[in-house]
Amino acid sequence: MSEMLHAAETLAKIGPAISIFGSARIKKDSPHYETSEQIARGLAKAGFTIIAGGGPGIMEAANKGAFEAGGASIGLHIKLAKEAKHNDFQTITLPFQHFVSRKATFFMHSLAYVVLPGGFGTLDELFEAVTLIQTGKIPPGPVILVGSAFWGGLMNWIRTQLEQTALINPLDRHTLLIEDDPARVVQHLVDFYRDHPGIVSRQPNAPV
Question: Which pLDDT belongs to residue 206?
């Protein structure tokens, strides 16, 4: 509770924010690293705050893109074996001991979610975001999976095994989608919130 309270007080006035998720294991020479950096840079220039996990890999790239574009770059860092030290590209750094408070902070303060390749942690964040949106616990917003080669098989499985068998509500193609082009990711988010100004005015998100 103390971690969530401190985070809520620290992030109370960050404005419209977008979380970028992805693996800590992605190296700097990976095209996924560059893609994350480009998306964060574009979103920061468009006026969005960027929230990432604060560690290396995709998280570092997201923070770096926003930081070097002169935007607000927030890192929610939890100390793990592969994430012992937070990255250096943050305007606000929040340390966490507990995953539950860290994840709650992501979802309390984000309008949308950009998900790059990652492992179980990234999948956990992805599915929690979609669950909270479909159950109405947070306002609707885009969840963009970046990389059709990586995410295409999972999306096909979701549509055939979950959606078509009525195990989940029908998916909104405007809020859960796959995109490969960083510029189109940025434009989709800019367009979505231009068309939904009422959602932006609710930041930080309150429970529905």
Answer: 46
Q: Which of 141, 28, 30, 13 is nearest to 89 (CA)?
A: 28
Token pair recorded at residue 34: 């560059």
- What's 120's DSSP letter? H
Residue 11 CA to residue 136 CA, distance in Å, equals 22
For residues 141 and 201, the answer to whether their CB atoms sit within 8 Å is no
Cβ atoms 50, 66 nearer than 8 A: yes
**Predicted confidence (pLDDT) per residue in 114-126, tens digit:** 999 999 999 999 9
In sequence order, which residues have a C-beta less than 8 Å from that of residue 17 and are 6 or more positions away?
A: 11, 48, 49, 50, 51, 72, 74, 109, 110, 111, 203
From CA 65, how far away is CA 162, in angstroms rounded?
35
Q: Which two tokens stand for residue 85?
A: 């030290």
Query: For 92, how many CA atoms within 13 A lie in the half-sphere containing its CB?
Result: 20
